[in-house]
Amino acid sequence: MQEKNKREVSFDKRSLIAGFFGNVLEWYDFTVYGFFAVIIGSLFFPGSDSTVSLIAAFGVFAAGYLMRPFGGIIFGHIGDRCGRKKALFLSILMMAIPTTLIGLLPTHQQIGWYAALMLTILRLLQGLSVGGEFTGSISFLVEKAPEGKRGYYGSWTTFGVMGGMLLGSTIAAVVANILTPEQLYEFGWRIPFLLGSMIGITGLYLRKGMKEGQHFERVREKGISHSPLREFWKEHKVAAVKLILISWGFAVSVYLVLIFLPTYLHKFRGIPLESALSTHTIAMIVMMFLIPLMGRLSDKVGRKPVMMIGMAGFVILTLPLFTLLFENTFLAILSAMLIFVVIEGMLQAALPALMSEMFPTKIRYTGLSVSYNISLALFGGTAPLIATWLIHISDNVWMPALYLVISTMVSLIALAFIKETAKEALR
Question: What is the DSSP track for 84-152?
């Protein structure tokens, strides 16, 4: 009997690991793309103006995110009707294949504009996948959590996100430091994408052993929703609007600070790419340790206080921290990045549980996927594109900082209008 219980505990731990492991692949790939956007822009969208090429590369980056709401609808329906396990297995499969294929794509020099078209199609497929991955793993892990630990369990989804970003930035930094600029443009940028296939295979193996959470099993016994999307739209529109506004600042902070900033420092401030990536990697390691701790804190003091302090931190400190970045020294950049990730860690830790508690189990996968992905499509994936475009039209390198301040201010206001649910039972 004891041996059986040990096996069940071990099996459940494997399910928890599998629940967030897909986020490692999802965000590894998206991070790598962002870090090599300058190279990808020149190889797939060549032109006389390097900034225009970069805008085109980030345009494809954003296009993938415009597919996220559609992916949210598709995978939300599968997850609420057929189970979280099936949806999460399909989502990681849909991410692993395009990631590998991007590393094998011919460039504009080899096949002309077909290269850009193929890149765009693969990014669109990835966007569909991401639309169901992150929110699905949130639903799965929060529903697995014991009472009083939903913040901690939910924080492991963003821990996986940061793990993917860290892995992406580490590999990108190693490749950028080992290879010459000529080698990076010739073949080096392909290496991280091809390595992503190994992460995908590992994730697929782990997810074969996942076990559904008890909350979904209860819903399945009582009767699942025949149309989760219709029920969500009919009964939860107000919650959806609140979540979209709250996610606005979160999305912009993630994609400006954690994705765009190394490219920004390299392109517009003249910092060597390897230095920008190195400071980013150190900061990501620090934030990974902070996320579970902040998740536990949100279980004790509530989601709202942790989230509001994080949003207020961006509103107040963004401009001073950009001033520090502009000193263009390794120590100054690292110091600014460390402060940024402490603030960002608060959002990363508390948001998963906060979102899950806004919807009932019956339509939770759909509710999270549609609401969150609308916000990410409008404000997250477009953030590097908008930031680059704003600099281009204004000739003002401060524009990304101003955009971040405005976005987090909107979310801070929206947070004031939601109910604290940390101490309540999961619906």
Answer: HHHHHHHHHHHHHHHHHHHTT---HHHHTTHHHHHHHHHHHHHHHHHHHHHHHHHHHHHHHSPTT-HHH
